[in-house]
Amino acid sequence: VGHEIAGRLVDGTPVVVEPVTPCGQRCAFCDGGDYNLCPTSVRQVLGIGADGGMAEYVAADAAGIVPLPGIGDGLGDASLVEPLAVCAHGLRLADAGAGGSRVLVIGGGALGLCAAAAARHLGLDVAVQARHEAQRVAAGRIGASEPDDGRYDLVVDAAGSPEALAEAARRARRGGTVLLLANYWGTDIVLPGGSVMFKELRILTGIMYGRGPGGRDIETAAAVLEANPEVARAIVTHRFPLDAAAEAFEAAARRAEGAIKVILVPAAS
């Protein structure tokens, strides 16, 4: 835990920390912008392979510090930049918008809502299929609609269950794309053969983020958050001081009661 990190420099500049950065050894992955695939970089991810934001001290690569001059006083909300970067990366891989503007996101948690926000930032027509009422309300606040009965050019699986994956394949149009952003670590991925084969679906996965022709995915994510303040207001439902961390984790587990994104703000202690 602790890979979604925001803070301030000594001069007061608000920043977000990119937890995975190039290895510095001039490998083909890092040179090509795919440092999320570099074996060395992946072992050093803050909050996973190295101490992250839940530790007392964090050693972050200077190259991974992204200034957020437009964030104002909402520093805690800047922790959303990391999941937004995951979504910006996936949408870039999927070339979102090139094959049509209709996007369906399955899963109304923080990741799904970030995917919807990133797709809306691209000007796409986005619907969110959510389980809980609070998630549906949040989706509406960031400009997403309820799903209709039609098929979609791009379906994003942000739920991470066999049922969600089957639904994603069913809702994608013929020749469409299914993008897996949810966590399937340690789980076999089973695809519905009929839908995938006969509709000639393109199946893509996305993990973390990197750098594309338009720049770093985390910089794209920062731009999404700075340009759309309502994204943070809709997704961040709870804020706790650091000394209430246990209570924060309990709140995060109560999604049926309205929790979406729960953050810890040390300055509030």
Shape: globular
Number of strands: 12
Main beta sheet: 5 strands, parallel
Q: How confident is the prediction overall: mean pLDDT?
A: 90
User: What is the C-alpha radius of gyration, as a whole number of Å?
Assistant: 18 Å
Spatial gap, N to C terminus: 20 Å
Q: What fold name stands as the CATH topology of the largest domain?
A: Quinone Oxidoreductase, Chain A, domain 1
CATH architecture level-2 label of the largest domain = Alpha-Beta Complex
CATH class of the largest domain: Alpha Beta
At the fourth CATH level, what is the homologous superfamily of the largest domain? Answer: Medium-chain alcohol dehydrogenases, catalytic domain
Helix and strand string, N-terminal first?
A: EEHHEHEHEHEHEHEEEHHEHE
Strand order of the largest sheet: 5-4-6-7-8
Q: What portion of residues belong to β-strands? A: 15-25%
Low-confidence stretches: none
Q: Number of helical segments?
A: 10
Explain how this protein is built.
The structure is a single chain. The protein has ten helices and twelve strands. The chain has helices at residues 28-31, 39-43, 81-93, 110-121, 133-141, 162-171, 193-198, 217-227, 229-235, 245-252; strands at residues 5-8, 14-17, 65-67, 102-106, 125-129, 152-157, 172-180, 202-205, 211-212, 215-216, 236-241, 261-265. Helix 3 (81-93) crosses helix 4 (110-121), helix 3 (81-93) packs across helix 8 (217-227) and helix 5 (133-141) runs antiparallel to helix 9. The radius of gyration is 18 Å and the shape is globular.
Keywords:
269 residues; alpha/beta; Quinone Oxidoreductase, Chain A, domain 1; Rossmann fold; 2 domains; five-stranded parallel β-sheet; three-stranded antiparallel β-sheet; 10 helices; 32% helix; 20% strand; globular
